[in-house]
Structure formats: structure tokens, C-alpha cells
Design a protein that fits this description.
It contains seven helices and 19 strands. By secondary structure, it is an alpha/beta fold. Strand 13 and strand 14 form a beta hairpin.
Length: 323
């Protein structure tokens, strides 16, 4: 298929995570021809398990995706390993080019590429990401309940994170890292008993494979069992710039703007999951993918109906001319 356009399928889905696979299952069950392009870079790959997902609590991210792929393939969908590098509009829909030169044609396009967490440049954070370094209280709060939790101020949302994690533990410390906090923020932290530690952060202390503390620039070590960071979350949008998809900037990151059903301002293009909702957990991404799939199918059905009506009218006109 490299370098040559294959047959036109109903939908090309870019992204093989929970949102993309959920949409693919919905669409293949509606008997649509679907190809999912998966670059194999799931956001939650470092996590020990997926939490808050009904009936699949604690399932490993890799197992969840494997099950999803099996379902897509079982309903006749196609999954292609590859990276999309360019997308362009055509008379029939969208032309999708992969890095290896393969070309896919689709009547509709769903962007489900997720996002990238931009981690603070503090030694130990990247190594412990998804294990001892966390970001979401609903994803990981239960697992660190009643433990010593340190929250690093690296983004504006850090104070909010500290106030949220306080619900899971009475031992929460906010590391200001040289950032100046507003009087209102300090009052709220004090009201909930969240201690504030000033001073620059040098690195995380690791004992074995676990976080054991936060080392400050003055050499002081504050013991903690888990560290929380507020990452900057940026949707993967670069391959879609050619069709007019531009990220919308937000204090917490950047995302693709779409309506409640996933439809973007670009005709024939939809978005779902973290690409368009940077706060979505796995459960939310799955729901958004299914909803987008339903509305893409409805959009295609209307187009199919309009064509059928037009074809019938043309045939009737031709028949009348013959008579």
C-alpha cells in the first residue's frame, strides 16, 4: 500500500487508544468500513492500571487496548501500525499519508491522537511517571490514600491539585519551588492543613523503585510516599495543520476544539478523547469515542440517503426523457 491510495473507506481513525478504538467498534458494528491508524504511543502506558473504569477496575492499559483491538478486528475493522504525517482534503473526504508512504482515503476522519504530558524538568519525575509521580486524583487518589503526598508547584493548577488530593490524605505538602502563592491560595491551603514548603526543588529521592522524598536545593529532604505534578497537556495536532486544525490554547495545555458530539469546524473531521478534552479519563474517552462514532455514522447515513434520492431522481428523469 506504500505510496498508493487504497480503496475509499467510510472512516479513517487516527489514534488507537480508548477513544479511537471505542469509535471504531461503534462504527464497525454499524457496518462501516473503518481503518484505525495506531502509532503505538498510548499516554497511560507507564501506569500500573486503569482506575475508575466500570467492570474493568485496575485493568492494565496494554490489556485494555488489546481487548479493544480484538473487538475492532472481530467486527471487520482494520488496524494499521503507523504514524500519520499529513492529511489533506479531497472531493470525497480526506487523504491520510503515513510516514512509510502508505496513503489512506476516507470519507470521514476522526482524530483520536490523545495528548502529550509535558513533565517538569526535575530529576526523578520522568523516571517515576505513572508510578510514584501522579497527576490525577480520580485516577490514583485511592492508591495513595492516607500516604504522605507531595505536590510540586510547576503549573498554575498545582494548588488545585493539592486541595483535591487532601481529600484522600491528611498528610499533603505543597512544594512551592520558589513560586509566589496568592494570599487566598495560602488561606485555603492552611484551612485544609496543607503545609507549604518554600525553596527550589533539586530532585526526587528514590529508594529502590519508589519515591521516598523531595530534595530541596539547600539539601533538605522532605519525606513523601508519592509526588503529584500538574502537567501541561498538549494535544497531538501537527499532522492536521494542513486541513486547518489548530490547537486551542488553555492554561492547562492545548486541545482541538469540537462540539458536544466531536465535530470540528473542518468538514468531515471529528475529534474525540484527550485530543479534544484534555481532562478526560479513560472512561470519558471511551464514551466520547462512542458518541463521535454514532454521529459520524449518522452523518454518513444522511449523505448516503441524499445520494440515493438524487440518483433516483436522475433515473426517473432519464426514464421520462426516453418515453
Amino acid at each position: 500500500m506504500a505510496g498508493q491510495a487504497s480503496e475509499i473507506r467510510d472512516v479513517v481513525i487516527v489514534g488507537g487508544g480508548p477513544a479511537g478504538l471505542s469509535a471504531a467498534v461503534t462504527l464497525t458494528r454499524a457496518r462501516r468500513t473503518v481503518t484505525v491508524v495506531d502509532a503505538g504511543e498510548p499516554r497511560n502506558a507507564p501506569a500500573d492500571g486503569v482506575h475508575g473504569l466500570l467492570a474493568l477496575e485496575g485493568v492494565k492499559p496494554s490489556e485494555l487496548l488489546a481487548r479493544g483491538r480484538e473487538e475492532v478486528l472481530g467486527y471487520g475493522g482494520e488496524i494499521v501500525a503507523g504514524e500519520v504525517v499529513d492529511v489533506s482534503c479531497t472531493s470525497y473526504g480526506l487523504l491520510v499519508v503515513l510516514r512509510d508512504g502508505a496513503v489512506l482515503q476516507g470519507r470521514r476522519l476522526l482524530i483520536a491522537t490523545g495528548l502529550v504530558d509535558e513533565l517538569p524538568d526535575i530529576p526523578g519525575v520522568r523516571e517515576q511517571w505513572g508510578h510514584g509521580v501522579l497527576h490525577c486524583p480520580y485516577c490514583h487518589g485511592w492508591e495513595v490514600r492516607d500516604r504522605r503526598i507531595g505536590v510540586l508547584v510547576t503549573e498554575p493548577m498545582a494548588v488545585h491539585k493539592a486541595l483535591m488530593f487532601r481529600q484522600w490524605s491528611a498528610d499533603v505538602v505543597l512544594f512551592a519551588g520558589g513560586h509566589r502563592l496568592e494570599p487566598q491560595q495560602l488561606a485555603e491551603l492552611e484551612a485544609l492543613g496543607v503545609a507549604v514548603v518554600d525553596g527550589g526543588i533539586s530532585r526526587l529521592e528514590i529508594a529502590g523503585d519508589r519515591v521516598s522524598g523531595v530534595r530541596l536545593e539547600d539539601g533538605q529532604i522532605v519525606a513523601v510516599d508519592a509526588v503529584v505534578v500538574a502537567t501541561r497537556m498538549v494535544a497531538r495536532t501537527a499532522p492536521f495543520a494542513g486541513i486547518g486544525i489548530e490547537p486551542v490554547l488553555h492554561p492547562a495545555g492545548a486541545f482541538i476544539e469540537s462540539d458536544a458530539f466531536g465535530k470540528t469546524a473542518i468538514p468531515g473531521v471529528w475529534a474525540a478523547g484527550n485530543a479534544s478534552d484534555i481532562s478526560a479519563q479513560v472512561s470519558g474517552a471511551i464514551a466520547e469515542g462512542a458518541r463521535a462514532g454514532q454521529h459520524i455514522n449518522a452523518d454518513l447515513s444522511r449523505e448516503d440517503l441524499d445520494r440515493a434520492v438524487a440518483a433516483r431522481a436522475t433515473a426517473a428523469g432519464d426514464e421520462g426523457d426516453v418515453r
